[in-house]
Every structure is written in structure tokens, then in C-alpha cells.
Design a protein that fits this description.
- The protein is α/β, with parallel strands linked by helices.
- The chain has one domain (12-195, 222-248): Rossmann fold (3-Layer(aba) Sandwich).
- It is built from 7 helices and 7 strands.
- Strands 3-2-1-4-5-6-7 form a 7-stranded parallel sheet, sandwiched between helices.
- Helix 2 (44-55) links the parallel strand 2 (36-40) and strand 3 (61-63).
- Helix 3 (71-85) packs parallel to helix 4 (108-136).
- The N and C termini lie far apart (42 Å).
- Bound molecules: NADP nicotinamide-adenine-dinucleotide phosphate.
- NADP nicotinamide-adenine-dinucleotide phosphate binds at residues 16-23, 40-43, 46, 67-69, 94-98, 117, 144, 146, 189, 191-192, 194-197.
Length: 259
């Protein structure tokens, strides 16, 4: 078989939540494989720092600070992408918030906020990008969900429900937009070492050291670059017939027998 093609030469990718963790690692993977980038997060300085890192790979990078919970900011990142690059080939819906809250305390306002930021922002960006993804051909939307969509953790109900919505939003778009040459793929990582999870990683690593491998069969947590590798693969030409699927990157967590 010929060499697998992961080149993104000539492609333009929008990445939300690019200033940290999985978004940063994916941005750098895209840049290293030839894509130009439009990157977004609320904090300007960290975003600019990641833009510099990506530029070191030769990518053209446009940092657009903004909040994915705000319609005007979503419209702005799309408009700036079209102004600067003339179109978009890849949309990586990565940014999310991880609000802790027990179901007995969940209010409509909290639920609406988490769904708007974690789920609807991705739907809205996909709507904005649809025409351009179709016109350029081989468009790809990648949604970052979470293994919480499969096995929810106590106290993160709104988050895990927003993540299973992302999985189904992926499938819904895949069946509606596949005919337009647009693929939609979801990736669900397990606990990954990022800014979002500093305390959880500390706790889990302490338990893994004691030998509780049920917390992960590979006896460690995931690294952002390991998620980015899957992001890169599904975004590229080698994944040309992969559509509507949720890839779990969890070191074998979901493979275990229930306790
Ligand atoms: N880490 C894990 O264990 C894990 C596991 C499963 C799934 N995930 C998923 O992976 C994705 C990335 O998480 P991560 O762990 O890499 O998180 P992270 O390191 O905390 O990074 C989150 C990124 O999103 C941005 N962001 C947050 N809220 C935003 C908003 N309203 N508008 C725009 N940008 C926003 C942050 O920048 P600003 O704060 O400056 O905006 C930052 O760039 C999320 O969808 C998360 O649910 C993570």
C-alpha cells in the first residue's frame, strides 16, 4: 500500500479553544502538516503565543480572540476567515467548559449555558462554514466530545449531556451533509493532561501509582498530542470515507468489564 497521506497542504482550518491543551496540540499538528489556521479562544495573550508556535512550522495563522458562547464572535471568526483566506476546509470544534454540578442542583440557566457553549456553538459554526466547506470540496468538521458521553462521572451532568449531544450532532450532520462532500467526525478522549484537568490528573495518577489500573488499563492518563494525532488523521485525505463516527481515545477504558 502507498504511504498514507496526512498532508493538509493548502487547507485552511478553524480551531476553537486553540490556546491550551488539546486545541493547542491540534493547532500545532495541523500547522506541522501544512494547514493555515484561524484560531480562537477568549484570552488574547495565550492565543498569540500559540499562533507564534504554529507560525514556526511555516503556517499562516490568524488569531481571533472571542467567546464561542456569543453569536457575534462566531460570526466574526467566520467573516475574518473568509476575508483573510477566502474559505475554510476544516472546522475543529474543540473549546468547551467543564462546569461541576450535581443533577439535583441543575438549573435551566446552567444547563442552557453549558449546551450553548459546548454544543450549540459547534452547530452554529458548522452552519456558518457549510457553504464554504461544500464549495471547496472535501470539507471536514471535527467535534471534540468526551468519554463522559459514554460513562458519565458524578457531578458533571450538564457537561456529559452536552457531550453526548455533540456525538449525535456529529451523526446528524454526517447524514445530512455527506452528499455535499462534508465529513463530520467526533473524538471522545478520556482524562487528558491539560489546564482543565490539573487536579483530576493529580488524583488519578496517585491512584494509578497504587496499582488501581481500572482507572486506566494503560496505567496512565492521555496526553494532548495523542488526541491531536487522531484529530489530524480524521481531518486529512487518508480519512476520506470516515464520516459520522465517534472515535474514543481512552487507552482501553471503555473496553473494560463493568465493576
Ligand atoms: N482534558 C480532558 O481530560 C478532556 C477529556 C475529554 C474531553 N475533553 C474536551 O477537550 C476539549 C479541550 O479541552 P482541554 O482539556 O484541552 O481544555 P483546556 O486546556 O482548558 O483548554 C480549553 C480551551 O478552550 C478555550 N475556551 C474555553 N471557553 C471558551 C469560550 N467560551 N470561548 C472560546 N474559547 C474558550 C480556552 O481558552 P480561554 O479560557 O482563553 O477562552 C482554551 O483555549 C474540550 O471540549 C473538553 O471538553 C477534555
Amino acid at each position: 500500500m502507498a504511504k498514507i497521506n496526512t498532508s493538509l497542504e493548502g487547507k485552511v482550518a478553524i480551531v476553537t479553544g486553540a490556546s491550551s491543551g488539546i486545541g493547542r496540540a491540534s493547532t500545532l499538528a495541523y500547522a506541522a502538516h501544512g494547514a493555515n489556521l484561524v484560531i480562537m479562544s477568549r484570552g488574547k495573550e495565550r492565543l498569540q503565543a500559540v499562533a507564534k508556535e504554529a507560525e514556526a512550522f511555516g503556517a499562516e495563522v490568524l488569531p481571533v480572540p472571542g467567546d464561542i458562547g456569543e453569536e457575534a464572535d462566531l460570526q466574526n471568526i467566520y467573516d475574518q476567515t473568509i476575508d483573510r483566506f477566502g474559505g475554510v476546509d476544516i472546522l475543529l470544534n474543540n473549546a468547551a467548559i467543564g462546569e461541576g454540578m450535581m443533577m439535583k442542583n441543575l438549573t435551566y440557566e446552567s444547563f442552557e449555558r453549558v449546551l450553548r457553549i459546548n454544543t450549540f456553538s459547534g452547530i452554529r459554526l458548522a452552519q456558518l462554514c457549510r457553504k464554504s466547506l461544500k464549495e471547496r470540496g472535501n470539507g471536514v468538521i471535527v467535534n471534540i466530545a468526551s468519554d463522559d458521553c459514554l460513562y458519565p462521572s458524578v457531578g458533571v451532568g450538564a457537561y456529559s449531556m452536552s457531550k453526548i449531544c455533540q456525538v449525535h450532532f456529529t451523526k446528524q450532520l454526517a447524514v445530512e451533509w455527506g452528499k455535499d462532500g462534508i465529513r463530520v467526525v467526533c473524538i471522545s478522549p478520556s482524562l487528558t493532561r491539560t489546564a482543565m484537568t490539573v487536579d483530576s490528573v493529580k488524583g488519578i495518577e496517585a491512584e494509578l501509582k497504587k496499582g488501581d489500573y481500572r482507572l486506566n488499563p494503560m496505567a496512565r492518563v492521555c496526553e494532548p498530542e495523542e488526541v491531536a494525532a487522531m484529530v489530524l488523521f480524521v481531518s486529512g485525505p487518508a480519512a476520506s470515507f470516515i464520516n459520522g463516527y465517534n472515535y474514543v481515545v481512552d487507552g482501553g477504558m471503555a473496553a473494560q468489564a463493568p465493576i
